[in-house]
Specification:
7-stranded mixed β-sheet; homotetramer; 42% helix; 348 residues; alpha/beta; 3-stranded antiparallel β-sheet
Chain lengths: 348, 348, 348, 348
């Protein structure tokens, strides 16, 4: 157990008590393996209902990197690549997992972690109109994360525009929703699960960071990507032997709106923290209203803070300032937030 | 929950109650992620002690396919392949995961799931003395499973002979121990964890099938394979965000000999079942004393049995007989074994 | 230059004089690169005509391993594999090139280098009816070589049967024609280029072993495989900068039936040699009527022969006999064949 | 044959007459295959002499993309990547060949096509000091091209600085010398083959663009990269069956300094052309003294020029200007250069 109070990420604790309770309650039941049990079936049904589309394919995988690789390798042939913001998780923090499967990640510039429809259009047109197009990787998928790695979110209009460009040009649109709950309940969000299921070809609903011990629920609307998907899950190591563990967890999370209720808690805690940073006048690296706060602070204050609190160092901004990240989650205790707030305002 | 009693595999239930208890007890503690927490450190220490070697590297991964791929891709350059029995899990049941990482699985014939030192020597010599050796995949690793996919085990003499051939020829020896507990407590076993750690370059201790919700503990003795291993864990999707879940589970399993105690239960249950098959005179496909029983039965009897019990169909032997597998595990209830025994002897 | 007379393979010399003449004649002409020049267009036209189908896509690559990898990686997604005889070139003599692209080669037993329709049907049915089918590599392509690595050829009926199984089950049929010329003019052949183009989804016409300095002409009839094929050629390193070298060579080879005329010479030379072996009563490893002769000879005779002639050692048959290969080609000189014949009959 | 005069690349013609003569003269000789003939041995010797180091390994491959992939895949394990300028050929013009082998290309910004030692140092230090370093691709190789894709060259001091950073940090330094001849005879060059062999771990001497029909000579000084290199050549499709074609060509090119003599011709022709552009006051995109001229011209002038001359369109600079490339080569005819010069000065 850590001696500091941890705000450096949103996966410091285990699972929401209701999730864990259900794992305990079902522990000695016998089920078949590999996600073909009734708990997975039931959880998939609830997710389909939450998305408002009975035709969606839903699969449960263990973790995010694995999910990204599985989806992307399902979608691409070996001469095709995936467009993404240079800040995208697949581009920087997955030890080249996508490339290890043979596909180039085509990074596009981004200040706020988001891609625009115009960027995608330009990249696509630039490819097909290049004389040497066959000497270049063919863009075939667009990867976005929502919320992004910088905590920002897409508006419905932005996502619709991306979707339109993708469909017109035969590109798959894939949303990494590792923190999807925290995006969907953000104060400035206007997207629904239903919108996302309609506008994307495939996306996933993150459990690891939102109430589960682990687990990501992949939702596929495009028929081309549904075919043979379980082969890819197995090959990439994501087919959990005791797959019912994933089913049980998502079943609980999608019962009585739990997934969204616990996400709201994280946002409330983040808003409290933002109050502290704003009171001190610390500028944001990128403003957002989700559970990740990127703030630029004096190094001296950061050193002081680090005695009791853990944050995530991002990068040096100038000789005396750095950008750092504070995360809240479904598990964040109000007392810890108040302690950090008080330290920020009065202590450093 | 299944309506039949399941004997078709050894991962039908969740975790051993003591394991689950500890997950519950530590649930709301904060720890750092990715296996760098104190639970993982403590579990690794206990495993090193159990193996009798303080210099071993120990890492925790989520599942077996993932572990096999991670170890093999760490070990091989792209022109190198891994020798294994044609029945080996990596050769038949991992959807080409090893090939998807670029490496050929070089299958060698085997009736009982085991490789011999002589086979490995012959394969190696055959390669280096072939005029076209550079046109062929270079053998660089030997993969064995213990117990094998057919439930057989290696004797100490057999493993020592394999190890000798491998070391003399610069081949890595890798043991897949997905069911290692069930092998080490088998009545005819003479291997110890310590022997395995000394004779193999890398092996893993399976948790998924022996008391854990999920998880495999990789133990590396060869310095070459220790280097940068965590990069590979991450890239292959095996670096669990809440890595402490793995640490907690293996910590419990390696406290008070629990891993071996619960393995013994599976073996006792299997021995009871063997009594039934032997009483009926059903021949074994391959005899063994571990937790998997491969038996050849009349199709008619199998059909009758299937009304109440689930087994794993293996293959057709002749027009009226098939080979099937029955598994026991740490979780197998004695009453279910007695029910099956009675059905085998009297009911079919 | 070798001091012995070489019969160990069919690529000991350069190009047919007419081919080389044309390379010289066009040497200082300026053309665009990468196979988009008029020579390639013209050669492709001639090949389409020879195959009797204007809709075929024709591409020129440099060598055989490269061609196999390019075709196979174009056809398969990463969970799919290619069925082939265990003796198939891709399975044994390409240093795992197919696996290095992520695909498993699914070897099927074969004594004569050929696959049967029944084998393919059984492998396919065995896959789709296996309970664990998603845990196994999905067969999606069938690779055959004609002539095979053992010099045998497919009859029209055999190829039609393979084609029928493949089409019914959604498998691509791919023929490696590295020595196609030597098969099509064999005395016992009843296949035409037109048959092959109709029955296969893709095949290639080998130039390296039949009159060219190098080069293989890939012919694609299946629309799915035509799409984006040039991306794969480039990625796999087969897009020759001065692509016209390939166009010029195949243009000459497919003018005035040259490809077939020079193939016939190889067959005639092989028939002369067979006379010698048969006179001595040396048995064939596998009988055939193409340009490769696999014969079993006493080691003593082989040692004597090796003083003046080079053959290809295949494998030890018993304590005093080995199987070896003698090849003829378009370039084989009659005087050398007579010298070898005389040595076989009288000298050893 | 093209109707325009081509300046768009440096591989429009065949081979230097002396090279072709020798291919013709040796055509019907018999040699063993796969680069193990005496011509390859002799050519390798001459290259070792030209580099002043008898211990160098020299191998002959067919083309550039293939060579890059072969070298890079030999050097890297799957969690490692290759640093290169964003403009590097492997990053933009090889259809993701490096990624298709599983390795990420780590692009660094560059205006002139070159990397600096400081950039490499920063990238390396940034990796090892990042808290999430195991979640990121490990830089292990530095790829540079000389001349670069923009025609610029490295000075001896620059290359020495790169080499120093690489050796200190355990990175391999790899130089793509597809146009090496044109760099080494440039007026402002101070590097020798000997310097390059000493400062790089591996590099190649391009034949395709400098006098050969095709072919690249890989020169390896680092022992780690020498091991098993031929396996990789074969696997990546670069092991030409009639390997002597490569040996014969490089043997001629490295006899009587031919490689450098014909390179000088290209440079002289480029200097003549530069005179024309400078007289008209057209600015360079990036100035250089090698065989590629990148010049910014009015679109109207370009359109006029295109009626008789072919150049390579690079990119739009503003509404009425574009950057284009003109190449000369060993084969460029003076009369064509004069025609273009005159058109540039007087015609457009």
């Amino acid at each position: 157990m850590s001696e500091k109070i941890l705000f450096q990420c949103d996966y410091n604790e285990g699972a929401h008590p209701k999730v864990l309770e259900r794992i305990v309650a079902t522990n000695m039941e016998q089920t078949v393996g590999y996600g073909e049990d009734s708990y997975c079936a039931q959880a998939a049904d609830k997710i389909r209902k939450a998305c408002g589309d009975e035709s969606l394919a839903v699969h449960f995988l263990v973790g995010g990197t694995q999910t990204n690789v599985t989806v992307i390798d399902t979608a691409l042939r070996s001469h095709q690549g995936v467009l993404c913001a240079v800040t995208g998780h697949i581009n920087v923090h997955e030890t080249g997992a996508v490339e290890a499967c043979g596909h180039k990640v085509l990074g596009l510039p981004s200040e706020d972690g988001k891609l625009t429809a115009a960027q995608v259009e330009e990249a696509y047109q630039g490819h097909i109109h290049n004389d040497s197009f066959e000497h270049m990787v063919q863009p075939k998928m667009v990867y976005i994360s929502n919320p992004t790695e910088l905590g920002t979110i897409y508006s419905k209009a932005e996502l619709a525009a991306l979707s339109e460009v993708c469909r017109r040009n035969g590109l798959y649109l894939f949303m990494d929703g590792a923190r999807l709950g925290y995006g969907l309940v953000a104060p400035d969000n206007d997207l629904t699960l239903n919108d996302i299921a309609k506008l994307c070809d495939v996306f996933y609903i993150g459990g690891t960071k939102v109430g589960a011990l682990f687990g990501e629920a992949v939702v596929i609307s495009n028929e081309e990507l549904k075919k043979d998907f379980r082969y890819f899950i197995k090959q990439k190591g994501g087919m959990l032997a005791k797959g019912r563990l994933l089913g049980v967890q998502f079943d609980v999370l999608f019962t009585d709106n739990l997934y969204f209720e616990i996400s709201k808690h994280a946002i409330q805690m983040a808003e409290v923290l933002r109050g502290a940073f704003e009171e001190k006048g610390y500028p944001y690296l990128v403003p957002n209203r989700t559970n990740q706060i990127f703030v630029i602070m004096p190094d001296e204050a950061l050193a002081k803070l680090a005695e009791r609190f853990d944050y995530c160092y991002d990068h040096r901004v100038d000789d005396t300032h750095s950008a750092v990240r504070f995360c809240t989650s479904w598990a964040t205790k109000e007392e810890n937030v108040q302690a950090l707030k008080s330290e920020v305002i009065n202590g450093i």
